[in-house]
Amino acid sequence: MSNLFDLAVTVNRVRYERAVEPHILLSDFLRHDIGLTGTHVGCEHGVCGACTVLFDGQPVRSCLLFAVQTHGHEVTTVEGLGTIDNLHPIQEAFHEAHGLQCGFCTPGILTTLVPFLEQNPNPSEAEIRAAISGNLCRCTGYQHIVDAVKLAAEKMRA
Amino acid sequence: MTTKFIGKRVKRNEDPRLLTGQAQFVDDVEIPGMLHAAFLRSDYAHARLLSIDVSEARKRAGVVAVFTAEDMGDDWQPGPPLVSPPPTVKDVIFHSRRQVPLVKDKVRHAGEAIAVVIAESRYIAEDAVEDILVEFEPLEAVIDLEKGLEAGSPLVHDDLESNLAAHLFQKKGDYEAAREKADLVIARRIVVDRGAAAAMENRGIVTDWDKKSQHLTVWDTTQAPIPIRNGLVARLGLSEHKVRVIAPFIGGGFGPKMMMFYPEEMLIPWVSMKLNRPIKWIEDRRENFYATTQERGQIHDVEIALSKDGHILGLKDIFLHDTGAYDPYGLTTPLNTQCHVMGPYDIKNFTSEVSVVFTNKTLVTPVRGAGRPQGIYIIERLLDIAARELGIDLIAIRKRNLIPPDAFPYEHEIIDQAFAPLVLDSGNYWPVMEKALEMVGYDQFIEYEQPRLRAEGKYVGIGVIPFLESTGVGPYEGARVTVEASGKINVATGIGTQGQGHFTSFAQIVAEQLGVAVCDVRIVTGDTAEFHWGTGTFASRGAVVAGNAIHASASIVRQKVLKLASKILKTPEEELELEDGLVRVIDIPHKSISLGELALLANPLRGAVQPGTEPGLEATAYFGPQYGATAFGTHAMILEIDPETMMLEIKRYITVEDCGTVLNPLILEGQIHGGVSMGIGNAYYEKLHFDENGQLLNASFADYLIPSATELPRIEVGHVETQSPLNELGAKGVGEAGTLPVPALFAQAIENALNNRDLEILETPLSPNRLYELLRPNEEKSR
What we know:
Helices cover 34% and strands 16% of the residues of chain A. Chain A has helices at 26-33, 89-97, 106-119, 125-131, 143-157, and strands at 5-11, 14-20, 52-55, 58-61, 74-76. Chain A is globular and about 50 Å long. Among the domains of chain B are: 15-21 and 474-623, Aldehyde Oxidoreductase, domain 4; 198-291, Aldehyde Oxidoreductase, domain 4 (2-Layer Sandwich); 425-472 and 628-783, 2-Layer Sandwich (Aldehyde Oxidoreductase, domain 4), CATH 3.30.365. Helices cover 28% and strands 25% of the residues of chain B. Classes of the chains: A alpha+beta, B alpha+beta. At the A-B interface, helix 1, helix 2, helix 3, helix 4 and helix 5 of A face helix 1 and helix 17 of B.
């Protein structure tokens, strides 16, 4: 292809330089070009929120962005939060409160919550529900997710 | 029974991987040289296919191949039947018409696949789909169930005389005689419409054919990897050990991933072998709305006969069931409706007649609930109407008719979805209902709260609905439990897993027997290379059927462990205990040997063994129940309706569940929360709107509203345990339970809140708009 774009983006604190086609979605770039398959794609029309990642710290739908739009920016995916041996407090709280079942929507919810809890260290249940209202989950009925967020907030305040 | 692990709120083994993006889903599989598939699907619901021109698509750079039905030659054949018609019912009619890999002559639903493009990337494949030219002759679509059965209706399948797919009659006692004696007969038409399962992960399949080793590997978002393997073997003419099907982490199943074979499942492995290349196909959300199976469309003409004191004398239900364009799933769903329309009530006289109708809509197969919510909706609506007409309290009429605890096992004299006699194994219903009433504060609400709030002008209502669920049906599942030299336990079972927590609840069952930590039990599900007997995850049966197979295997391994340890520790088996990964002499804790050491000793490299000795500490066992275990529950709800917008707010939501032995309360609560949330979607938000041409008008998450966190209430969960006598664990299933009573509960609570005697809700799903429409004629009347 002649019209490749030289993309330079930092993902999870690692700098990637790739020649990409301009129409490649950020979600596909993350998943298939650099192998970060933790970001999931549920609807590809920006509603379900499963593909949410952080773009310079703010949650965005990676299925609604082209990879080239992240040129020169920082992206954080679920892989950038914590590891199996060293979970992020939000991940820990989801484990303890059973905040996930199939786990498909979970990465998008976790990334949505990182800036939310930074800005609202002591959120009410209604605030939590509003914060995740753009993330659809078909398994949990959200209740254990809400419990997990409360627990995460406690952990992060401690 | 005192337990150490079973019944405990154990955190899930699978979570750390899922939480860190390290769990493999089908779309995460990457294979060097992999090609990507995209489908051309029909925009018409019903049309004759006149011609297809794929020449431009084939010319596009990056396109490797395009296949149509024609290109498949003799390999083009309809999918195998998934469930056969019931053999034990007299005069059953069943016309088996199965889905095809690609449309050959006629399109039968919008979204049916016509051609597949294989290209270097999904982007190219999707672009090339647009290059294909198709000439259709549009035909009038069969959408309405009743019109579909009228003489002169267009036919979904031209070789049949009508759109009747099946007809089944079942009876118990003598309804007509019971009707003669009745003080009150209520006859109503009740309509249930379609919804989507809408798992967050769409379907997908990756296939890798290795020509030199003649080995096919398939990653599939299926709830039933073993039947998929068996079907592919039969279809592709391969040996069973040459086909490996893996259902890795699956992003929600809810029934439609139990359907097989989807056209893509037939086609992609075939293409992989043709091209000798790995292929990936991942469904998009729009395809999921059109091509993944759906459920619940039925029209019931139903009649209930009662005595004046509210005893049910008999029930007669004549209904139509929408099966969509094909019927590979047999009669499972309508049979479930027949088996649940009597609810948890002692009904002696029953007649049920179902006509299954082909329509030009997406195929119907079970969706979480699977015919049961329709049955529950119908009987509960009728009881609400009966209570109103007889002037009996809503709770009293139910209590009066519940099957009493001494009547179990209770024989219903009809057959269930497994074609086994419908026998309710065990139950004690009233205490469950009573607990729900207590939890919701029923009396307090009716006597004080509601009058007070009504006086303030608020439209608040309460609902209480009991229900039962047949679960844990056959035929069987199996498992192999192995103590490894590391001292960790490996367990393989054939069912797939889609978020139910099997990696943990099954590990608890094994830990209980072998005295190891739950995190030291590694569970493998859904990989035919690890375990190759079984059927699948459906009918709320994983914990019951696979769970008991695992329990049986672990029990045998425990015996082997004790036998060997007794020899080595020179201590009688009765004096040994399994704790902390060790076999210890009770009271002499330092006299012990680890399970890992025993595993090594059980698999000697040299020396002689007793003839007949089996190596290792391993056992394989199977569990197949005679019939299903029946769970019971009650939901209660208090809601408030905004009379202007018809938006409602759920103030309290209570569930009390009796699913026998609880393996893990944390996981159980999660299952119930999820079931209820899907039920709330079914009841008030979700409906698939097909127009008269068979076009789905809301095929996106922007238009098809699945509940988000702001619509759902906090759900309070209570438990009662009546163990099933049918299996050693005493377990009953619960996966689908949460969905079952919710539409009936909404109807009851909405009627109660609006307190308008002209409002009689006889349909589901509802929505704010629909409720407004239902009330509007009444409003005009009152003016």
